[in-house]
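Researcher: We plan to redesign the surface later, but first we want a full-length starting point. Tokens attached.
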């Protein structure tokens, strides 16, 4: 569940889910940005311009911070560290209460991209990511508020359909760094809040960074035949369960939200999950059982999206190799299981 807990931290820091274009779209060119430009105030107050500026700020600023995450399981505090040195970006998030969890991300963001980029630096650069988000969300006009003792622009990000959650961001008026993030459910209720309470010593990396293009998604014969508009296949992050003979992992994102698809055989040493919808705090998981080539298989779709969306995706998953689409459903993705603990597919065989 490490990625689940860090999801809010990643978005608040501006390291949004790595996003690649659909395979039939042209791959965008890499984008370069001189971080020293952030030292001057933006001459474009439009919401899209501010959003894109905040993405670059999240890559360009060195800082330490304290933050809180308010969610279904209460309040947890974190320490955050972000550094860029010699073209290598490092981000560390560490929970200070509850079960000890620390996550470190690192990747190349310098002009020399001969080193393979990792995890959050492997996605589309800020300009392309902004365009991806703006195509499926409405970025609403801003107003100044006070967050963590600092002046911040509020930016509402409203979905254009009922297939995804909305967000509110508060961006520091001095640095453009994200200071607060709220996830908003389809009913308008706040599902989760992530807020920096103390931003320490932000300083700019005094060089040019280069981001993108994203890595290509991995190939898999298991495909979701239905996805909400804007969700495209993604490269699998290095800290995800590895694909092996037991389990396959696919990931999709619309630029703000990621959805994972796991498919694995049901063996005698592993108890299957109940088919249907399982509640995971603010997230859901949809489980479906099928028979493929005489073998029982379990399909698991999970992410921060409405339950009916995950269920519809799970019901659309098929084996896509050649013309073989002969699996039969033995359990439907329907019903509800509240407060279940869903175990992700194991990384070993």
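Model: Full-length starting sequence:
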């Amino acid at each position: 569940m490490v990625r689940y807990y860090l999801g809010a931290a990643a978005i608040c820091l501006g390291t949004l889910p790595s996003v690649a274009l659909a395979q039939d779209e042209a791959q965008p060119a890499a984008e370069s940005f001189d971080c020293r430009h952030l030292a001057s105030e933006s001459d474009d107050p439009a919401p899209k311009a501010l959003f894109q500026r905040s993405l670059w700020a999240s890559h360009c600023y060195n800082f330490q911070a304290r933050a809180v995450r308010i969610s279904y399981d209460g309040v947890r505090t974190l320490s955050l560290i972000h550094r860029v040195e010699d073209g290598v970006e490092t981000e560390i998030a560490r929970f200070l209460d509850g079960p000890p969890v620390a996550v470190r991300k690192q990747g190349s963001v310098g002009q020399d991209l001969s080193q393979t980029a990792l995890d959050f630096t492997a996605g589309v650069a800020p300009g392309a990511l902004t365009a991806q988000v703006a195509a499926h969300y409405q970025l609403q006009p801003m107003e100044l508020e006070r967050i963590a003792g600092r002046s911040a622009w509020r930016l509402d990000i409203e979905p254009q359909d009922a297939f995804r959650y909305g967000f509110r961001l508060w961006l520091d008026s001095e640095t453009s760094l994200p200071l607060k993030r709220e996830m908003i459910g389809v009913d308008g209720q706040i599902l989760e809040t992530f807020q920096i309470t103390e931003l320490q010593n932000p300083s700019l990396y005094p060089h040019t960074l280069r981001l993108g293009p994203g890595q290509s998604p991995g190939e898999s014969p298991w495909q979701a035949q239905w996805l909400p508009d804007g969700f495209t296949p993604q490269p699998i992050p290095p800290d995800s369960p590895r694909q092996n003979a037991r389990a396959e992992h696919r990931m999709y994102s619309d630029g703000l939200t990621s959805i994972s698809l796991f498919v694995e055989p049901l063996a005698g040493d592993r108890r299957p999950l109940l088919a249907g919808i399982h509640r995971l705090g603010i997230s859901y998981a949809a489980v479906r059982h099928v028979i493929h080539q005489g073998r029982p298989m379990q399909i698991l779709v999970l992410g921060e999206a409405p339950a009916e969306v995950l269920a519809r995706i799970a019901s659309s998953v098929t084996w896509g190799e050649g013309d073989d689409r002969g699996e039969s459903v033995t359990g439907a993705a329907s019903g509800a299981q509240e407060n279940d603990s869903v175990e992700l597919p194991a990384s070993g065989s």
